[in-house]
Design brief:
mainly alpha; 2 strands
């Protein structure tokens, strides 16, 4: 009996020693977690909007993913959070689900993604990720950027869009300029202008947050009720989020295939992030452990009704640029988000959220995905 218990106990002891906070780095990691938490607010909401679900589900993922992923990843500075690619794939997987049921279907979808990633890590699929070329990654991220831009033109202009895919919807909006809502257009362009102006300043880390808050205040003071609010997307639960079991009755073939697609995207993108932010010294990379960590992040996000998560290019770059030293920088960003979670409904319901601002995220992902290290991407890499 004792022989059967000793190996798990020994493995648990090794894991606890590996994740133990380092006293010399504790202060730096706590401070590095703050910018990460701040950037998680607009980024998490953007991911949920891209998927067509309640924005608060992106905020839930922004604390569950970094904490669970940070505690189990091999790449210590990698931040496991919401990404545009995973959000778009989630939106595609939810297309066949009734709009009223999508918020409830998200946890089931994300938990399936988590199970698939953990299984892939245990099966040592990570050995094959090295065969993915930079050209493939650049093409993939560029396609994501174009898809986001086309898909968000309707939200930027406040115009109704008709079409079976993002490009068709963009063409429909641009071919009917009379349907454009001027107040919505000016609000979105104002947010983009703030992002662009702050991108090369010391306030770049806070650029996305300012792009969310300033137009929201201006629209509220001007009484521009024609500008859509995040609260219009659905009711936002109040209080500290608690874990929930998914509704298994919503299981469908489209959700299963969607989970497979998201898992593949997260696996490949996470491998690129791990390669761009290697552990210091001579520590050997362990892609399988990073895959398992992304699976753990998705399992945690799913049980907290959050969006899918994965290794984030921009959030990892931000983590490096603001002085994160160990895995606890990512974990602290999740803790800061959890501490402020009771305020999520107030932030979200009052926000005239500028969904078009996610475009800068994709451009940043494209730029950082070309093989540059996160440090070289700079603080403005945070919008992802």
């Amino acid at each position: 009996m004792m022989r059967a218990v000793r190996p798990p106990l020994a493995a648990t002891g090794r894991w606890l020693r590996s994740v133990r906070p380092e006293r010399a780095s504790l202060r730096a990691d706590i401070l590095a977690g703050l910018p990460g938490a701040i950037s998680s607010v607009p980024d998490g909401m953007a991911a949920a909007v891209l998927a067509g679900v309640n924005p608060v589900q992106g905020l839930y993922a922004s604390f569950a993913g970094p904490i669970a992923g940070g505690l189990s990843s091999n790449t210590r500075l990698m931040v496991i959070a919401t990404t545009s690619a995973a959000a778009l794939a989630a939106g595609s997987a939810l297309q066949n689900v009734a709009p009223a049921q999508r918020p409830a279907a998200v946890p089931l979808l994300v938990i399936m993604v988590g199970v698939l990633l953990v299984a892939a890590g245990l099966a040592r699929v990570g050995r094959y990720t090295r065969f993915v070329s930079y050209s493939v990654m650049i093409g993939f991220l560029t396609g994501i950027a174009v898809n986001i831009v086309c898909g968000q033109i309707a939200d930027l202009t406040g115009a109704p869009a008709h079409g079976s895919f993002p490009l068709a919807k963009a063409v429909d909006v641009l071919s009917h300029p009379g349907s454009i809502n001027l107040a919505s257009l000016l609000t979105g362009l104002g947010a983009l202008a703030i992002l662009a102006l702050l991108a090369r300043t010391r306030l770049a880390v806070l650029g996305a947050l300012f792009a969310l808050l300033i137009p929201t205040v201006v629209v509220a003071m001007a009484g521009a009720d024609s500008v859509a609010r995040v609260g219009d997307a659905g009711d936002i639960p109040r209080g500290i989020p608690l874990p929930h079991l998914p509704d298994i009755r919503l299981l469908s073939f489209s959700l299963v295939t969607g989970a497979l697609a998201i898992a593949a995207i997260v696996l490949v993108q996470g491998a690129g992030v791990a390669e761009a932010a290697p552990n210091p010294g001579d520590a050997r990379p362990n892609p399988n452990q990073d895959i398992i960590a992304q699976g753990a992040g998705n399992l945690a996000a799913g049980f907290f009704r959050g969006m899918p998560v994965g290794g984030s290019v921009g959030r990892t770059a931000l983590n490096v640029s603001v002085g994160g030293r160990t895995r606890w920088a990512a974990i602290w960003s999740g803790i800061w988000m959890l501490v402020t979670s009771p305020f999520f409904p107030g932030w979200s319901e009052r926000s005239r959220f500028l969904r078009s601002g996610q475009y800068s995220s994709s451009r940043q992902s494209d730029r950082c995905g070309s093989g540059k290290s996160p440090a070289s991407c700079g603080p403005d890499a945070s919008r992802r």
